């Protein structure tokens, strides 16, 4: 009969592809979320401006007057505890909506700064260690993993580019926060901990404002071809050799970049005679390349393949570091160091996509959160090893050794193949 046939058409339409208006709404929501993620991540990227505040804590004219080793402890502690935050965030992403987790991350990160900002002198330095190194360190890891995972769910066909947007906001934060840190350190020269008090208030606003727009995508956004139903759980991923191989690749890529950045200002002065003022400018410029490298490699990896991209990143960093060990001209030092930073940033955009490609999107946040132990270890071991080599020999010898190891590490991505489908548990 004719009426029943007419009645059945809406059901077929509802089950079919999204309408044009619905696709437009989803597109607008994606753009809004991408902007919210960048705003949210600006605060977390400021962690790489710690060296400016460290100099303030070391200045002799205030109540802290810390030594070089002491002033670096909060930064090292924060990186050591990043791993706890990423693991926690990855586990929560499978159980809770991203907005609430992002709010918790913002409260921890900004709250830790507010605690640290209450220190009044050397006798209160433990507050800086507890607040910035402890509480903010966990918040940093938690705040980093949530948008990286969430945006991949919204852009399942462009996972590397989605991760690049999230990590690009992180990198942009390191660039924009540097001048803010300089102004505040100069203003609070007598009591540098007050810098953290001001930043805690500012970052509380930016992280929570961005987090207010976070949400998981509607069902039709997910690609049916993805192994969302049979994706690897963290315990299953840990039983595969691929998880350890990807973590090692992330460790090597991160070690190369973060080790160079940890000594780039004094190394530039020692190798090329660059003045301290110009070395500080160089550090800021390299932060721009770190930021640009994230969307750049996110785009390139979609064309070369994720593992080929890592071969190129590791090989490029290794060759540039070896070349840096022989450089005596500032005109050559900058482009070589810039290439290292491009690849260093690119690793953080490419590895989240690799984790979801190898282990599925269903538990990608938890699996990648565990892999970020490579970031924590690289942030501690790499700078310490380079500083020790530089002290025993020279910055040239340190860069030569680091570059040689990184070139050798370029073979690792060629050994990586996605595992088969996991067994149900």
Please, could you describe this protein's structure?
77% of the residues lie in helices and 0% in strands. Mean pLDDT is 84; it is low at 1-16 and 220-229. The protein starts with a helix and ends in a 16-residue tail after the last helix. The chain has 16 helices and no strands.
Summarize the structure.
By secondary structure, this protein is mostly helical.
Features of the shown structure:
425 residues, globular, single chain, 16 helices, mainly alpha
Write the layout of secondary structure elements.
Blueprint: H1 2-15, H2 20-45, H3 50-58, H4 68-93, H5 98-116, H6 125-154, H7 159-187, H8 193-211, H9 234-237, H10 241-272, H11 276-304, H12 306-324, H13 330-359, H14 364-371, H15 373-392, H16 395-409
Helix pairs in contact: 2-6, 2-7, 2-8, 3-4, 3-7, 4-6, 4-14, 4-15, 5-6, 5-8, 6-7, 6-14, 7-11, 7-13, 10-11, 10-12, 10-13, 10-15, 10-16, 11-12, 11-13, 12-13, 12-16, 13-14, 15-16
What helical percentage do the residues reach?
A: over 70%
Q: How would a textbook summarize the main sheet? A: none
- Summing up helix and strand content along with how strands pair, one would put the structural category as mainly alpha
**Unreliable segments (pLDDT under 50, ≥5 consecutive)?**
1-16, 220-229
What overall form do the CA principal axes indicate?
A: globular
Q: Termini distance? A: 49 Å
